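The instructor's notes for this session suggest beginning with a concrete chain rather than abstract definitions. Hand out the sequence below and ask the class to guess, before any prediction is shown, which regions might be ordered.
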Amino acid sequence: MEKDILRMAIFIVVHYFVLWYAGAMLNFFPFYAGDLAICAIGFTGLMLCVVIVGCTCWIIYEIRKK
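After discussion, reveal the predicted structure:
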């Protein structure tokens, strides 16, 4: 059980960095601004929202499974 939790946590962190890197390669695509830092902040906020939703769904799934 603890191995699954650790594996899922590593999976989330690795995917977060991969997607953030991909966003940087595409100039943080959905966000257009004159300053790249503003685009990065918006993209990071979007990524955090996606991670929070994913973790919430995973927690609800685990609770209902028991």
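Then share the key points. DSSP finds two helices and no strands in the chain. The CA atoms of residues 9 and 55 lie 9 Å apart.
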